Amino acid sequence: xxxxxxxxxxxxxxxxxxxxxxxxxxxxxxxxxxxxxxxxxxxxxxxxxxxxxxxxxxxxxxxxxxxxxxxxxxxxxxxxxxxxxxxxxxxxxxxxxxxxxxxxxxxxxxxxxxxxxxxxxxxxxxxxxxxxxxxxxxxxxxxxxxxxxxxxxxxxxxxxxxxxxxxxxxxxxxxxxxxxxxxxxxxxxxxxxxxxxxxxxxxxxxxxxxxxxxxxxxxxxxxxxxxxxxxxxxxxxxx
Length: 239
Prior knowledge:
By secondary structure, the chain is an alpha/beta fold. The chain has one domain: P-loop containing nucleotide triphosphate hydrolases (Rossmann fold). 38% of the residues lie in helices and 27% in strands. It contains ten helices and ten strands. The strands form two sheets. A six-stranded mixed sheet has the order 6-7-8-3-9-10, sandwiched between helices. A four-stranded antiparallel sheet has the order 2-1-4-5, with helices on one face.
């Protein structure tokens, strides 16, 4: 069943057409990835969905209802959260305080405490450092915290903008394994990544975005083995 439908979405920044009428869908329970070069429109797509960017045309439908012009807070209330590029943790607050900010729209104290424990189950290192200022964590730990903070909103759809950016290969592997675990617990994932190889390996389906247009779409496995995708995004010999 389709959870999110993006129909003919257009976004302009001044005279520049960042998205030229893209359409795609994310079904409930899937991991869907958007891959593409820098400047292809990937971040703009996610920011449009959660109301951070003004749309110049098209429609966004979530759970069968239009959310095209919904304010960001309202999209969070609907169960859509964004893990932004660059982590964006609050550096002068502790790990625990950052997690609690993720639950700012909730009033169920017992549920919030339960979810903090749940996040610590995913990321034991965050529990060890719950008292530490977020700004003093490593890049990988900050990424874990950004994901944990998003989970505190109890999302139905979690969107992730370049979660592996700037991280060591071992940490990248951990992050992708956590994404599949989150998905296995019933959270739908929309992922944008420059690390196309890692993203396509875990994705049920993928879309290739090129200068504001969707150039290709297929299963993650099929795109991973497509010669055009391998030459453009994975390096010629990578399989």
